[in-house]
Amino acid sequence: MTRLYLKLDDSLEKAACRVGDVALPRFRSELRDGLNLGGGDYFLFADDGAEVLLVCNDADHAEVFVPERAEFPYYCYVWEGDDSMLESMKEALSAVGVACEIEEDA
User: Fold this and answer.
1) Which one of 1, 16, 29, 38 is most buried, counting C-beta atoms within 10 A?
2) For residue 102, what are the contacts with CB-CB under 8 A and spacing of at least 6?
3) How far, in Å, CA of 74 to CA of 40, rounded?
4) Distance from CA of residue 23 to its chain's centroid?
5) Where do the domains of the chain lie?
6) pTM above 0.85, yes or no
7) Residue 3: closest CA among 57, 58, 59, 62
8) How far apart are CA 1 and CA 33, in angstroms?
9) What is the pLDDT of residue 106?
10) Cβ(93)–Cβ(8) under 8 Å?
């Protein structure tokens, strides 16, 4: 899985607004209950045939927590569609000052 890690000090809702406004402007966003994604809430961004999830990267969300990247409070990954969209998201977010990194699982 490829992930786009984000350093944002905002709440999940504010982080989702920033990601949506800057990196996914044509996507619809929806707050979801993450019972099957480690508990807590997450955001789903959807557009024709593509879905991107924004999740919290912390111990409270154990199933999706990536401890070695704990300095990034959030990350996005593609649930449906092409992972290459993460690169354009990174470029857009970096351009407005959001520290972010892409990493692919080995």
Assistant:
1) 16
2) 2, 3, 4, 5, 86, 87, 90
3) 13
4) 11
5) 2-104
6) yes
7) 57
8) 22
9) 59
10) no
Confidence (pLDDT) at 64: 87
d(CA 62, CA 80): 22
Q: Which amino acid belongs to residue 87?
A: E
- pLDDT tens for 33-86 read 876 655 678 999 999 999 999 999 998 888 888 999 999 999 999 999 999 999
Q: What pLDDT, in 10s, does the model give residues 20-36?
A: 999 999 999 999 987 66
Kindly state the DSSP code that residue 92 receives in the 8-state scheme.
Answer: H
Burial class (CB in 10 A: 0-12, 13-18, 19+), 106: exposed
Contacts for 24 with CB less than 8 Å, ≥ 6 apart:
45, 47, 52, 89
Burial state string for 2-16 with b = 16 or more CB within 10 A and e = fewer than 16: bbbbbebeeebeebb
Q: Give residue 36's Cα distance to chain centre.
A: 16
